[in-house]
Design goal:
- By secondary structure, the chain is mostly beta strands.
- Helix content is 6%, strand content 45%.
- The chain is built from 1 helix and 10 strands.
- The longest helix has 11 residues, at 5-15.
- The radius of gyration is 16 Å and the shape is globular.
Length: 171
């Protein structure tokens, strides 16, 4: 079984609470038989760590897949890295390169590059669109919108300030 090497490196580099002598407090690895790639990480003040990754696997830690890749939101306990929750997003196409930020105290806003036009997605305007969704902290979709033209539009990053989303994409 392949393991999610990039996610492990992210945990080692960014998630590990290190003392002055650089002792790694914890690290986690997730994966299946196909390729996985972590694309963002976010720490919640309540002690949760959110990781976004896309996966082509439908086995191992990623038990289902509706398309080429699906986006996964992984919530871990910040104190020890224990898995708290996993939520899958996507359609029958390629859903990848997810980025997230907090929207208030109890929601996340997520931007994703997507070629899907079915299942959870409300449509597709071209080859790849930017899918923006808000979720609760468990990953339940509250709102969503697809943005794009007739060619490739790719999500690069998303941040919030008060109640305004700032979306960086390429076209």
């Amino acid at each position: 079984m392949k393991k999610l090497l990039l996610l492990t490196l992210l945990f080692t580099s960014f998630l590990c609470e290190a003392q002055q002598n650089s002792i790694i407090e914890w690290q986690k690895t997730f994966g299946g038989s196909e390729d996985e790639e972590a694309s963002d990480i976010l720490y919640h003040p309540d002690g949760f760590v959110y990781v976004l990754a896309h996966s082509g696997s439908s086995d191992g830690d990623f038990d289902a897949n509706d398309g080429l890749n699906d986006l996964w939101m992984i919530r871990l306990a910040g104190i020890d890295g224990d898995l708290e929750h996993m939520q899958r997003f996507g359609g029958s196409g390629n859903d990848f390169n997810g980025h997230t930020d907090f929207y208030g105290d109890d929601q996340l806003v997520i931007s994703v590059s997507s070629t899907s036009s079915d299942l959870e997605l409300t449509g597709n305007k071209g080859l790849a669109d930017v899918w923006v969704l808000t979720t609760d902290l468990n990953g339940n979709i509250l709102q969503q919108m697809n943005y794009g033209g007739s060619l490739n539009d790719l999500a690069v990053d998303i941040i919030t300030n008060d109640s305004i989303f700032y979306l960086l994409s390429s076209t």
